Amino acid sequence: MNNDFRLILNKIKATQQNTLRQTCLVSLSNSQIEEINKTIPLLKQTLTIYHNHKDSLILNPVTLIPNLLIIQNEYLVLSNCTINKFKSNQAQCIQLTNGLGNLLIFFLSNEHYKQWIDKLKQFCKLSNFSKKFYVKEQTVADYYIIQHKKTNKLYIANMSSISNAQMELLNSEMQTLRSVKHTSLLDLKWVYQDCRFIYLIYEYFRCEKLTTLLKQGLILDQTQLASIILQLLQLCKFLNKQSIYHGNITLNNILINLQSSYLSIYPINMKPLIKNDKDSIEQYKQSIELPYLAPEILEGSSNPSIDTDLYQIGAVLYQLTFYIKSDKDDVKQDSIKMELINKMEEQFIEASKIQAKQINLQQEYKMVFSTSQLDLLKRLLEKRDQRVKLEEAMKHHWFVNIKQKFKPKQERRKQHLPSLNTIIELCEQSESTKSFLNNQLRVDDEQVLDENNLIQEFMSELKKNNYQKPPSRENHEKLKDFQIFKTSYEQEKSNPQDQFKVSKTVV
């Protein structure tokens, strides 16, 4: 045993003799090992590990993939762990602790130690939040702008009181955000915990709650409404591929990204269950707003899943479709009334014959646009056996009709450059658009309302027109807007390495 390792180990034993006897590692199945072997690791190295049962130090290959530490045929979920550091003159030690026990990893190389500690901090629970950050101001409910004391860099922190937090559901959300990446999920940077709060820290972003915008008088047009619903469906498609679900898609949990060059959303406060026992299901039911609980959950005949996510998306579409602005502080979440949807359908049929009735219809509900919208709404809100499937919902004729409606006619393309204000007018334009994306984001190839096809057509036509005549000032400004939009889209379309495929499945 290296003398420096022995000094550190004796120091730890002096205060943690009893707890060091228990390991925090869990065995992997053969199928899980096969999947892990296919995954590109973040770090991989042979390191010195303290063997708890043998009370000895052993060299072992150690592999880090997102949120998982793999040692031979055992693993550790990092988002459940706290992290501590120990040093001597020539050696360093990282201690990982969870409810099961401890893991000690020793280093002789300071370079290797820094590599591992920086990566592990991205996934473990950290301490001393108040020593690292200033809390500057609240942005939306439970979200605060914070500033790093050393670097002065700004971040966003979601603060949850430990006394009020449902820890099992919160841990499940942290594990999910650690294990998968997607453009509609917030990019979790670190997690801190003290005796009062858990702090989920994200890269800085500027957002506003959709409910806040509605209270301020926002009325979505048909394309904006369809864009929100389609993005929710696309996120469900991605989560379904990872064998997980969101579990808490509600109107109150939708943030509008004000930094994006097109309308984009973040559905926050995920609640995927780790266990589906009776107590967990009951806790889940108490934490979800009643209008968003699928009939099969209320009846106790099914557990939360992608199918119940589809119902929640239907409930969001219902609340937006029949939204009426109120003077009250809170946006009213009405119980779902299928008879109201049927009544609207009947009025649309009548309105197709008499234009005046169509005008009267939209005076009361300003976000009711078409019978195809109401058809999708009904099919999302059906009971489980009759409910529309995910792939079918994404190809619904409401989205197809809107895409066709906004395709420019050939003769009009030669006259002017069509505007995309209908899908970006919610976004605040800044001098330099800060991209929320990074090279680890996984992006679905199907974009909202097939923007890429439209952009490519517009850009191609504009390029051809520019060869024929000098651009006007108006076209110059439009070209400038499209260059910003196109650059942002092309950044999204890059396909990163699939480092996040396995982690959630193993967890």
Automatic annotation (TrEMBL):
Pfam families in alphabetical order: Pkinase (PF00069)
Keyword ATP-binding in record: yes
PROSITE patterns per record: PROTEIN_KINASE_DOM (PS50011)
InterPro entries documented for this protein: Kinase-like_dom_sf (IPR011009), Prot_kinase_dom (IPR000719)
All copies of domain Protein kinase, residue ranges: 129-399
GO molecular function, one term: calcium-dependent protein serine/threonine kinase activity
A cellular-component GO term for this protein: cytoplasm
UniProtKB keywords: ATP-binding, Kinase, Nucleotide-binding, Serine/threonine-protein kinase, Transferase
Gene Ontology biological-process annotations: intracellular signal transduction
PANTHER family: CELL CYCLE SERINE_THREONINE-PROTEIN KINASE CDC5_MSD2, SERINE/THREONINE-PROTEIN KINASE PLK
Protein name per the record: Protein kinase domain-containing protein
Annotated organism of origin: Paramecium tetraurelia
